[in-house]
Amino acid sequence: MNKNFIPNYLTLGNIFCGFISILTATHGYYVWATVFIILAMLADRYDGIVARKLGVVSEIGHDLDSLCDVVSFGVAPAVLVFEIFLANDKPTMTLTVIVALLCAIYVCCGAYRLARFNVTKMKNGYYQGVPITTCGTVLAIVSLFNLPSIVLLVLLVVSSYLMVSSIKIKKI
């Protein structure tokens, strides 16, 4: 096996887990959906570390990582929150549309955050805006606590804002 592909396999493991999370969430398996988002987070955490250790950092790996992150930490948590809201609240059509729009805005904010990250350099060891990985993983974990849906929606909206804000986050 070519060592150049190893980090990309981890990155593809990230999107694989994100996709499985979406499937499990749409079928009501919310705990499994969360587990797959956490697994995606672990794959995302180690793909860059492995690439640097092996000396195979590449532009394609960087771009692939962002594309996978949109699915695993943007779409998957948004679908999870949306499905939990539908299951718990049996909302009217109007409320369903509003929640769908909030979830779509979250995904858009996450995609924007990743695009901004890709074209700007980190300044003094700080990121601009909260990383989508953090927001998506927190949303997934909090969804396990059977909180009222409004709490999840508020967290979704706050996360959307924090991703595109100019807040400085220290790189760990």
What topology emerges from the helices and strands here?
Blueprint (H helix, E strand, L loop, with lengths): L5 H21 L3 H25 L4 H31 L3 H27 L6 E3 L3 H11 L6 H16 L3 E3 L2
Antiparallel strand pairs: 1-2
Describe the structure.
The protein has six helices and two strands. The protein has 172 residues and is mainly alpha-helical. The chain has a two-stranded antiparallel ribbon with strand order 1-2. Helix 1 packs antiparallel against helix 2 and helix 3 runs parallel beside helix 5.
Give a nutshell description of this structure.
By secondary structure, the protein is mostly helical. The chain is built from six helices and two strands; from the N terminus they run H-H-H-H-E-H-H-E. The radius of gyration is 16 Å and the shape is globular.
What key phrases describe this protein's structure?
172 residues, mainly alpha, 6 helices, 2 strands, 3% strand
Mean pLDDT: 94
The end-to-end span amounts to 31 Å
By secondary-structure content and strand pairing, the structural class works out as mainly alpha
Largest sheet: 2 strands, antiparallel
Task: Please estimate the helix content.
Answer: over 70%
Output the number of helix runs.
Answer: 6
Strand order of the largest sheet: 1-2
Radius of gyration: 16 Å
